[in-house]
Write a structure and sequence with these properties.
The protein is mostly helical and 140 residues long. It has five helices and no strands. The protein has helices at residues 2-26, 28-62, 68-85, 89-99, 101-122. α1 (2-26) packs across α2, α2 runs parallel beside α4 and α3 (68-85) packs antiparallel against α4 (89-99).
C-alpha cells in the first residue's frame, strides 16, 4: 500500500521536475514537441515490436510449444506503450527500455529469476516409496 502511494505521488513529482529542468534548457515549446515526438515514435515502435512478438508467438504455437516468453513480452510491450502515452521523460525512458528487445530480455530475465527462486523455495518435498497392506492372522 505504501509503495502505491509513493508511486502515485512520486512519479508526477519526478516528471514535473524533469519538465522544469528540460524546459529551462531547451525552451517550453521544444519540450512540448519533444514529449509529443517521443510519444508518437514510441507508440509506433511498440506497435512494431508487438507485431513481431505476436508473429514469434504464432511460430511457437505452430511448433506446438508454449509461447511463454512471448506472452510475458507482449504484456511488457503493452505496459511500455502505456508509459509512452503518459507525458513525461521518466516514463518515456522506462517505456523505451521495455520496448527495446535487448533491454526487455534483460529486465524480464532478472524478474523471472527472482520469482522462480521464490517458487522453488515454496515447493513441497515429497518422499516416494512403496507400501504394502499387512493383514492380521484373522483376516482383519
Amino acid at each position: 500500500m505504501n509503495t502505491a502511494i509513493i508511486l502515485i505521488l512520486g512519479i508526477p513529482l519526478i516528471e514535473i521536475y524533469l519538465f522544469i529542468k528540460v524546459g529551462s534548457q531547451i525552451g517550453a515549446l521544444n519540450t512540448i514537441l519533444l514529449i509529443l515526438v517521443t510519444a508518437i515514435v514510441g507508440i509506433w515502435y511498440a506497435r512494431y515490436e508487438g507485431f513481431n512478438t505476436l508473429r514469434s508467438g504464432m511460430s511457437q504455437l505452430v511448433k506446438n510449444e508454449l509461447p511463454l516468453y512471448e506472452i510475458v513480452s507482449g504484456a511488457a510491450i503493452a505496459f511500455a506503450a502505456l508509459l509512452l502515452i503518459l507525458p513525461g521523460f521518466a516514463t518515456d525512458i522506462i517505456g523505451i527500455l521495455l520496448v527495446l528487445p535487448i533491454t526487455r530480455k534483460i529486465i524480464l530475465s532478472k524478474y523471472s529469476k527472482k520469482y522462480s527462486s521464490k517458487k522453488e523455495n515454496q515447493k513441497k518435498k515429497f518422499i516416494e516409496g512403496e507400501y504394502e497392506d499387512i493383514e492380521d492372522k484373522d483376516g482383519k
